[in-house]
Amino acid sequence: MIDLHSHTNESDGTCSPAQLVAEATRAGVTILGITDHDTFKGYDQAIPAAEEAGLELVCGIELSTKLHGQSAHLLGYFLGQQNLDEFRNWIAGQQAARRDRNVRLTARLQELGFDITLQEAEARGRGMTGRPHFAQIMVEKGYVANLRQAFDDYLDESATGYVFRREPQFAEGVARIRAAGGIASLAHPVRVQGDIPALMPELCASGLNAIEAYHSDHTPEDTQLYLDLASHYGLCVTGGSDYHGAIKPSVALGTGYNGNLRIPDDLLERLRALGTTTAFP
Description:
By secondary structure, the chain is an alpha/beta fold. It has 10 helices and 9 strands.
């Protein structure tokens, strides 16, 4: 079984890298992509545990980008890792922007009357602290009933506590991934605001060479639409559960949301084959 979209506690998951490997092995996953947000730390730390378990790891990352002023996530897969130094340096700059946002987010939440400190959030998220970690604190302290309310009322882009974070434009994220020899895949397209079929010419012109057709959020109709778009535009297809551990208890590695995910066993081999034939424009 294959799963190319998962998160450790080096971003917003709840499993340590070693725990994620153990959970993947328990679930019967034999090929696992670790795609933490804006960091390779989880992947790097998981390598020894994966080697011991006989689990094939795929080096990945999930970038937060802006597309027409809205959030759009981009997956990068690096099936060969010879040219990643420059990309890793660029990622370090994105991490600095994230921490600057967290400082301002803490101040904004305190203005709204919440007793929350940056140190509390960073104790959970460390170098990749994000809004989910602030949401967890809000739930634990009784300010909100659940994580969804924390986002709806305070942390989402249209909510009262939201503060801007400098994020790269979608096209820049694609270019950075492609320049490092990676495959750039549109993550969970069902979440992207806008008409995906209408956006595809623009996204492909930016260098996008894959789309995440298989995802826990996708209905069978969604998946078929994205497969059709991949075929029409000559894109690679990626897929994964978007596993976060206890924070999303209904999403399991390899099988998705309550068993709704079926990723073809040969998907990685097709990625390897297609990834070597899709040239950057």
